[in-house]
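Please check the following.

. . .
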Amino acid sequence: MSQEADVAPSRLSTIKDDIFASVVVLLVALPLSMGLALVAGFPFENAAAVGLISGVIGGIVVGLLSGCPLQVSGAANGAAVMAAVFIKDLGFEVFGLIVMMSGLIQIAAGALRFGPVFRAVSPALIQGMLAGIGLLIFASQFHVMVDDTPPGTGQEFGGVINLWSLPLAIWKGVTMEAHQAAALIGLLTVAVILSWRRWAPRWLSFLPAPLVGVGLATAVASFLALDIKFVPAPDDLLAAVSLPTPHTLGRIGEGVLWAAALSLAFVSGAESLLTATAVDAMQRRTPRARYNKELVAQGVGNLLCGALGVLPVSGVIVRSSANVTAGGRTRLSTMLHGVWILLFITLAPDVLRIIPVASLAAVLVYAGLNLINLSFARFLWGQDRIETGIYAATLATVVATDVLTGIAVGVGLAVARLLYSFSHLNIRTEQIDGMTVIHLEGAATFIRLPQLAGAFEALPPGARVHVHLSELKYIDHACLDLLANWDAQLQNDGGELVLDWDALHSLFRERARATSSSAAVAA
């Protein structure tokens, strides 16, 4: 255990650490919150305020109720891309209602203690979904980075169109005067981010690279008075809020809205709980995450976000890791970062109006590429080719269609693989020194009972049989009962049945350990 867990800091020291960490998280959250609202497709004039309001709710409300004190919630990549799909397919009118319904689903799931279930998701599916989302963000925001509109916006196979037209965006940024200045600002932002991560002075290393990139790009654009697009900010913050109407609430019974809400609840819930697990692994300053409580907190936050018509929230690994690294010790750091965002958008909205849109897009281009975890893909390829297929299929479907369809394909393949694993039994028989040796590999369940019985029925009366169980992943009572019956039958006929009892005991011990571990997590 680290030294920081052994020495209890004073209350004043804790408050100082939390204040410092909250400022660092604020600096990380500002560019990402504003940019993700643009990804989601909110009106240009309200996008910045919408993303920041979500940050306020994620910080203050979710932070207060959170089951993982150092986790920081706000607008996230996955939810932003899903929001873009819902807005395009179903319209702004019902978007807030969908977010509210997803919040209700999360609250109910937490109250029913389903929190750990949300974590029971194949890593290949999650990483494939994130990689697909990363590609979508990269493809769309690359066009925005040159002050252009992504050509796939609102179209079928929009992600593929945006990817296919990337050479055109590069051509515009290089050759067309209307796009050159924005392209240079975008490149400057990315260059500063990469350079800062590598060569930042130690005494300034607490400043997040995206903020430094956006800050320098903003200064250059202002100094040169460049003719490019800048982030709009409403004079009245309430102008960015869209309250549900009675007519909208009347559509709550529509199945398509519940399907959308369920998918959003699943994605944001899984992302939040996986982030909470990562936060637990990074520090020992706070008690372990309480997953059901965290799920309820996310649900309350999304219920409020939906009522205001802003982006949904979930736990965000970038902000959470910044909070831990900066020395946050209690939930105060998370809540204060929300307070700072609120003060920023109410007292200093003019600051937003000097930030180049191309610079925010560049931050998202960089963030999108970071979501494509190539090291995980290489590791998966070396470990399990079937899981690699699930990863690739999920990624491709998310890019080609939408996040919901990609999740459905990934879940379907994962379930198919699971069913195959628990229904596949390979039986190999050989003769060694007058003994029949039977090797069982896979899962011996009642589904394969006829196959197993057929292998024994083919034996001659009085046979000497040795059954190897070491390659079994699972054996159920029906198959054990069959083995016991054949043991008695062979003995009556003058034969014998030898079983690898040590392998069988080992198999059941592993199952017992897995069951007890699952029970501990659920508690």
In short: Confidence is low (pLDDT under 50) at residues 1-7, 511-523. Strands lie at 73-74, 314-315, 425-432, 435-444, 464-475, 496-499. The two ends are 23 Å apart (CA to CA).
